[in-house]
Amino acid sequence: MPILNETHDPSLQSWVKSANDPESDFPIQNLPFAIFRPLDGNGDFRGGVAIGDQILDLAALHRLDPFEGEAARALNACTGNTLNEFMSMGRTAWSALRLNLSQSLHINAPLSDRLAACLVSQTKAEYAVPARIGDYTDFYTSIHHATNVGRLFRPDNPLMPNYQWVPIGYHGRSSSIGVSGQSFRRPNGQTRAPDAAEPSFGPSKRVDYELELGIFIGPGNDLGAPVSLNEAEDHVFGLCLFNDWSARDIQAWEYQPLGPFLSKSFASTLSPWIITTEALVPFRAEWHRPADHPQPLPYLESDANRDRGAFDIHLETLLHTGQMRERQAPPVRVSLSNFRHSYWTVAQMVAHHTVNGCNLRPGDFFGSGTQSGPNPEEAGALIELTQGGKQPLTLANGETRTFLEDGDSVIMHGWCEKPGARRIGFGEVAGTVLPAW
Ligand code: MN
């Protein structure tokens, strides 16, 4: 696990003035990575680092040849149109580049005049999915979500017997993962009404969002070589926001016995900025397993995982309906949660995923599963907030929702704050449901 160092010093300020705004998601202590290109040119997609309301163009920076050794090699790996190579280099390289970037963006940095020419305004850029995602695995790590959803189907026995023992997951589809700003057609599919004898075909009536963290894998492991829990975080590059859209009515009809399929693979949207695990060091938290719950099997248990395996990340979901957009009204918050409630840690997900010998590769991607908190208003999906569609939500403008309607945009934010540390944020992930074909 990375440790606290000079790049986390809360007193650090940048010569990029917008980064010193206490409200900024991207102060000099954050330094997240994305793949972007300027909107005005025909330039290729390349790596960038967020600083305040700007992007430091890593391809332009590389042409100045400002760094040496490991940091120079790491910078070179960020000049192409994916971050897979940089992700594959591992923690020493990531950390060397972060330190050099921190020193270069510092308010007293000698090179600031030359680096200023490498800045691109975030409002004048577009983003791409930051890695070539080979495999996407979706976990189910919020026991509150699993219990709330399970109760809708099995009121007396909401949790399946494996839940408290196994970090549950399934293999998802990477081809339909898009970056913030993604819009998609409401999926068509088979559904069956509870009292119907046969299924019908048509647009899903129960399109929902899922508030998740996305996890990018760094160095992979060889086929047949499990990653131990204590080594697991050496294989994790960083975290982003992730909206794992779901068609609940298609899911309910198709999911047995092999799990979700077309109800999930029509779209999943991630935020452009990947927050490195090094940037998140000040916001690590204890991981608890209540004493009256089953304790993890030995391969999922360690002191380090107990001491600081969790991440304290505030999560927020907002809804911006078509009507709100027409009337130029702002989005409204529908829930607030935190990743620290997760029943399993990121390290446990990696250790479990590889314990059978399965190989992970650089740029592989995990969804954490919907992150619902213990209280009803902390639910990370509409299926929970509306009790399976039985209790509509009334929004501030008088509109109601059970599930998403055409034209609805869902916006998610994430941020970390605690006394003694500089607040950092994740930016946002936004996506919009369009009418069915
Ligand atoms: Mn999911």
Question: What do these coordinates show?
Answer:
The chain is α+β, with helices and mostly antiparallel strands and 437 residues long. It has helices at 58-63, 69-76, 84-89, 91-105, 112-116, 143-153, 248-254, 303-308, 322-326, 346-354, 382-385, and strands at residues 33-38, 46-51, 54-57, 119-121, 125-128, 136-139, 169-171, 177-179, 182-185, 188-191, 200-203, 207-208, 211-217, 236-243, 246-247, 268-270, 275-276, 284-285, 310-311, 314-320, 332-338, 365-367, 393-394, 400-401, 409-416, 424-434. It starts with 32 loop residues before the first strand and ends with a strand. The mean pLDDT is 96. The structure holds manganese (II) ion. Manganese (II) ion (MN) binds at residues 138, 210, 212, 244, 367, 369-370.
Oligomer: single chain
The CATH class of the largest domain: Alpha Beta
Q: Hetero groups bound?
A: manganese (II) ion
Mean of the pLDDT scores?
96
Shape: globular
Rg measurement, Å? 22 Å
Q: How many distinct helices? A: 11
The strand count comes to: 26
- Tell me the strand percentage band: 25-35%
CATH H-level homologous superfamily name of the largest domain:
Fumarylacetoacetase-like, C-terminal domain
Query: What is the CATH topology descriptor of the largest domain?
Result: Fumarylacetoacetate hydrolase, domain 2
Largest sheet: 8 strands, mixed
Terminal CA distance reads 47 Å
Roughly how much helix do the residues carry, as a percent range? 10-25%
Low-confidence stretches: none
Task: Give the helix/strand class.
Answer: alpha+beta
- What is the domain total for the residues? 2
CATH architecture identity of the largest domain: Alpha-Beta Complex
